[in-house]
């Protein structure tokens, strides 16, 4: 069973929810990708504990957080700042996957004094998001089994988002909102990436359909940071949970400093 406490707070009249996995360690804020929520980082939190206290935000429109009026870059980044203010934390280590990865490095670029270390999982400095997967998602299924069948091979990656509603089984995110968020994520974010000053670890899946090997190496060379490639698809923390956690653990030294590239 996942050992966590769910908490929440309000930002401009919207409720944001997060999972606090507890422990005595320094805080690591974890930001999920599209089609996901904070609970997806439960295996990582278990593997990092007690050295790190993982706090995983359900980002706007995802999980138990409220839907938002917009899904632009500034809104996501502002939500991270609001979470740190709510927690009373001046600075933290920050980890993000896909959508969360861009949110993480944009936050680090815009709030350099608040991020001690950064882990970015399988997302580029230039994003050209394929909308086909979201457009083809089933809206509802009569049963959980029916939803699993409709998703096929993608089901294990989305299962933490499954919710039973009055009209059947669906997701903890709204598909139309996700499409808007994906469209807002697409673009050239090189300036933000190059502006980050804290120690950074970039993790890529060798079978990724989102971050190419060439682009990952260009990102690493542009900032002289460490790049780790693991035999995985786009969701590296799902495909290689042990190796992913070990690389994060080694990068984030027990005393809160970071291992040099």
Describe the fold and architecture.
It is a single chain. Helix 1 (42-48) crosses helix 11 (241-251) and helix 2 packs across helix 3 (99-110). The protein has helices spanning 42-48, 73-87, 99-110, 132-135, 144-151, 155-158, 175-185, 190-195, 213-223, 236-239, 241-251; strands at 5-11, 14-20, 26-31, 52-58, 92-97, 115-121, 126-127, 162-165, 168-171, 187-188, 200-205, 226-230. It is an alpha/beta fold and 261 residues long. The chain has a single domain, classed as 3-Layer(aba) Sandwich (Rossmann fold). The chain has an 8-stranded mixed sheet with strand order 1-2-4-3-5-6-11-12, with helices on both faces. A two-stranded antiparallel ribbon has the order 7-10. A two-stranded antiparallel ribbon has the order 8-9. The longest helix is centred in the N-terminal third of the chain and has 15 residues, at 73-87. The mean pLDDT is 95. The N and C termini lie far apart (35 Å).
- Described by the principal axes of the CA atoms, the overall outline is globular
CATH third-tier fold name: Rossmann fold
Fraction of helical residues: 25-40%
Tally of separate domains:
1
Enumerate the strands of the largest sheet in spatial order, edge to edge or round the barrel: 1-2-4-3-5-6-11-12
- Round the Cα radius of gyration to an integer and report it: 17 Å
Topology:
Layout: E1 5-11, E2 14-20, E3 26-31, H1 42-48, E4 52-58, H2 73-87, E5 92-97, H3 99-110, E6 115-121, E7 126-127, H4 132-135, H5 144-151, H6 155-158, E8 162-165, E9 168-171, H7 175-185, E10 187-188, H8 190-195, E11 200-205, H9 213-223, E12 226-230, H10 236-239, H11 241-251
Parallel strand pairs: 3-4, 3-5, 5-6, 6-11, 11-12
Antiparallel strand pairs: 1-2, 2-4, 7-10, 8-9
Helix pairs in contact: 1-11, 2-3
């Amino acid at each position: 069973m996942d050992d966590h406490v769910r908490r929440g707070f309000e930002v401009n009249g919207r409720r944001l929810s997060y999972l606090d996995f507890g422990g005595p360690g320094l805080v690591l804020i974890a930001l999920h990708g599209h089609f996901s929520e904070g609970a997806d980082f439960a295996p990582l939190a278990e593997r990092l504990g007690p050295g790190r206290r993982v706090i995983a935000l359900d980002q706007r429109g995802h999980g138990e957080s409220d839907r938002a009026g917009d899904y632009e870059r500034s809104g996501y980044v502002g939500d991270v700042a609001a979470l740190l203010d709510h927690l009373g934390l001046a600075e933290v280590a920050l980890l993000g996957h896909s959508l969360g990865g861009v949110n993480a490095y944009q936050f680090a670029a815009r709030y350099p004094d608040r991020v001690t270390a950064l882990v970015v999982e399988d997302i580029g400095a230039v994003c050209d998001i394929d909308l086909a997967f979201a457009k083809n998602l089933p809206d509802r299924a009569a049963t959980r089994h029916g939803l699993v069948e409709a998703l096929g091979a993608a089901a294990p990656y989305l299962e933490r988002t499954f919710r039973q509603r009055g009209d059947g089984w669906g997701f903890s995110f709204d598909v139309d909102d996700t499409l808007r968020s994906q469209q807002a994520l697409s673009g050239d974010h090189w300036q933000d990436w190059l502006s980050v000053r804290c120690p950074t670890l970039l993790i890529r899946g060798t079978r990724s359909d989102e971050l190419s090997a060439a682009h990952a190496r260009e990102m690493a060379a542009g900032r002289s940071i460490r790049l780790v490639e693991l035999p995985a698809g786009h969701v590296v923390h799902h495909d290689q949970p042990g190796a992913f956690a070990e690389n994060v653990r080694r990068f984030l030294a027990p005393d809160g400093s970071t291992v040099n590239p």
